[in-house]
Amino acid sequence: MPRITMRDWPPYSPTDQQRRENAVLAARLMMNGAMTAPAIGGIPMVEGEIVYGEEEQEEIARKMEELAYETESQRHVFLYEAVMARRVDALLFLGNTRAFSDPWDGECGLCAGRPDCSFVYEQRNQSTGLIDPSDRRSETMIKGPLCAAYAHQLGYNVGSALMVATHLYIDARPFITMGIAAQKLGYCRNSGLVVGIGISARSKFEASDPGLDYHLINLERGIDAIRGNVSQLGLRPVTGTDYKIGDPSKKK
Question: Is residue 119 included in any domain, yes or no?
């Protein structure tokens, strides 16, 4: 009989990869929850992508660190959550495909308090009510304004995905920072708004309570510090004596 062994250390070892596959499977089922969430008018408007792997998650984390220096007030949030993007087992990105280019036209007034969608249409290149989505230039992290009704809809999709995670006994938490970074890297490219969900199958989900200066003081940095000072820990003593002649740890 084949044996499937799972451990969470060392990272990305064969036994750790077996464990991570559980998180990827959970992400797929969470995507089902997002796709089947109640939608305004029953209109399809959600897309999703699952990302996992050391290099893929590192790319997203570095983009988050780059974006951190575009905002003063939220800099620490991007930096802290970049560490989390590296630490989780998988990332699920969910986006709304209509909030940017296809307003609801439901006279809800959510975007600017007007009894119509004129505020959105006035900010876009459009003809006869058809918005041209080809101009993606933006001076802000999220290009707006968005149709607020459809932007709110994404909350139902994310919430449904998180409900599935609860039933699967897997840790998950949504992050707008991860969604912004992923969108700028081309994930969920049809969406005007993207939210990332970090998924973890470890005993400790660090996103729930990170420590102070988390981008500087975290597990990876601690381990690397030990590796950089291994000779100071007695692991490689400099005695000038060949260990084959005698045990250098024993005093004569």
Answer: yes
Examine residue 190 and state whether it is found in any structural domain, yes or no.
yes
The residues, ordered by sequence, that sit 6+ positions from 67 with a Cβ below 8 Å of its Cβ are: 78, 141, 177, 180, 181, 184
The answer to whether residue 245 is domain-embedded is no
Q: Encoding tokens for residue 53?
A: 């792997």
Per the structure, the complete domain to which residue 166 belongs is given by 14-207
Which residues are CB-neighbours of 147 under 8 A, at least 6 positions away?
98, 99, 100, 102, 103, 104, 111, 117, 120
pTM metric for this prediction: 0.87
- Looking at per-residue confidence, does 9 or 115 come out higher? 9
Domain harbouring 115, CATH code? 3.40.109.10
Tell me how crowded residue 1 is: count the other CB atoms within 10 A of its CB.
2
**What's the one-letter identity of residue 68?**
A
Q: How many domains does the chain have?
A: 1
Confidence at residue 67, expressed as pLDDT on a 0 to 100 scale: 97
